[in-house]
Amino acid sequence: MAEQYILAIDQGTTSSRAVLVDHAGRIISSGQLEHEQILPRAGWVEHDPKEIWSAVRQAAAQALAVAEVNKEQVAAIGITNQRETAVVWDRTTGEPVYNAIVWQDTRTQRICDELAKDGGGKDRYKDVCGLPLATYFSGPKVHWILENVDGARKRAEAGDLLLGTIDSWLIWLMTDGVHVTDVTNASRTMLMDIRTRQWSEQICADLGIPLSMLPQIRSSSEVYAEGRRTGLLTGVPIASNLGDQHAAMVGQACFAKGDAKNTYGTGCFMLINTGSEPVVSDHGLLTTMCYQLGDEPPSYALEGSIAVTGSLIQWLRDNLGIISSAPEVEQLARTVDDNGGAYFVPAFSGLFAPYWRSDARGALVGLTRFVNKGHLARAALESTAYQTADVMSAMLADAQEGVTLTELKVDGGMTANDELMQFQADILDVPVIRPEVIETTALGAAYAAGLAVGFWSGKDEIRANWAEGRRWTPKMSASERDRLLGGWHKAVTKSFDWVDDAD
Ligand code: ADP
């Protein structure tokens, strides 16, 4: 029999990727297409759901063509996706009633403020869904569509419309109408009860979302359906579904309580596996599903999101012009021995976890005549490591007893930076480890799909496939670490109370 593979589809914010993964967990081919970022007004971000569907199909066809693999060799399809982005479509025609409203879109601020004012403040639903009221999540986005698109509410109430995050939209199209989501994606809508893993009728009612619109919530790893009769992958089981950061947890084999990974991209997303019970955060973190593999009990996670990390390096390049490409920041930082006393707090749009200060703005402090652009480059890089350390402390403070951090698994574009990764290990005082295959998101979707169809026998096989690519071991003295963190925490306070009207 010809060799079998798993096809993983990674539908991201800027592009759609498809990769073929072999039994050893290697990526043997890929296809990728970008899609348009539609920005109708300040703060609004939309995607065309039909363009995304077309990009996914083309990316999948490319991945198969490059490797000369036919559909009989695809044992299963796995899906991972940008989270929270919401689509509403007609259940008969499949026509979206509006563009997808993207996770970054802030048009629902007023809706969130009003819900908070009605009682309970921004943590009104936190005990149920694990999340604060925020524009980030899908529920308020769907509410906006139903209120603002002509006729949408009436059609929704008549049972003619469906809603979904991008995973549901894709699976519905791939299968000719199977309407499902998984626990991880559902945990980002603000509409799911995190304990029962069912839709919260109360929150849906408060947001005016008819229950008939909602997909069925399933585990992250099981056969939902097979590819539709007229499609590229007819009869191939669609067997996993995970939000991107959750897929990365699976791809990094973070299966034990206390296992954590941090993805360093435009911003940073750090998750720690908290085991079989949700942990409600007292330190500004989100309670979320980690994954649920088939019939196994689900795993939960705490998540800390940092808004500005890699994008600060882009800012040094585009706004200050002190580097001409992102990797150059490393050479510039190496021209000096330390930060020269300068600290950079990149609170460009306030601070996310664990501070959640929308009144904060960027601050560059500790400047003297001695400070030069090398120190600035260093301070910018260091800010990523300090912010990660703050999220990590919050995680350890929130997580139940018995959770300690012994190492941090990392991935994402910024992990190419050796100086940063060494500094990160020094500041956390734990080893920082990057796997051999850094496409952990696609890999996680592939693993979850492969587990569902017996392509891999269990988590042990996945753990065995995970191979260390590079390790950074802490070298800094405790006193130096304390001195630097002290400087950082002082700097953070200087960014507070800058704008009066946080909106
Ligand atoms: P995303 O998936 O969020 O688009 P990536 O994982 O592709 O992000 O990482 C890209 C980000 O990493 C960019 O913001 C870029 O500035 C930053 N970056 C890329 N290479 C380096 C580097 N060598 N040093 C520091 N930052 C880098």
Question: What tags apply to this protein structure?
Answer:
alpha+beta; binds adenosine-5'-diphosphate; Nucleotidyltransferase, domain 5; seven-stranded mixed sheet; six-stranded mixed sheet; 503 residues; 23 strands
Computed structural class: alpha+beta
- CATH classification class of the largest domain: Alpha Beta
Q: What's the Cα radius of gyration? A: 22 Å
- Give the total of domains: 2
Ligand inventory: adenosine-5'-diphosphate
Number of strands: 23
End-to-end span in angstroms? 60 Å
As residue ranges, the low-confidence spans are none
Portion in strands: 15-25%
**What would you say the CATH architecture of the largest domain is?**
2-Layer Sandwich
According to CATH, the fold-level topology of the largest domain is Nucleotidyltransferase, domain 5
What's the number of helices? 16
Shape: globular
What does this entry look like structurally?
- By secondary structure, this protein is of the alpha+beta class.
- It folds into two domains: 1-308 and 351-358 and 392-414 and 432-469, ATPase, nucleotide binding domain (Nucleotidyltransferase, domain 5); 310-350 and 359-391 and 478-493, Nucleotidyltransferase, domain 5, CATH 3.30.420.40.
- It has 16 helices and 23 strands.
- The strands form seven sheets. A seven-stranded mixed sheet has the order 17-18-16-15-21-22-23. Strands 3-2-1-5-14-13 form a six-stranded mixed sheet, sandwiched between helices.
- β10 and β11 (198-199) form a beta hairpin.
- Bound molecules: adenosine-5'-diphosphate.
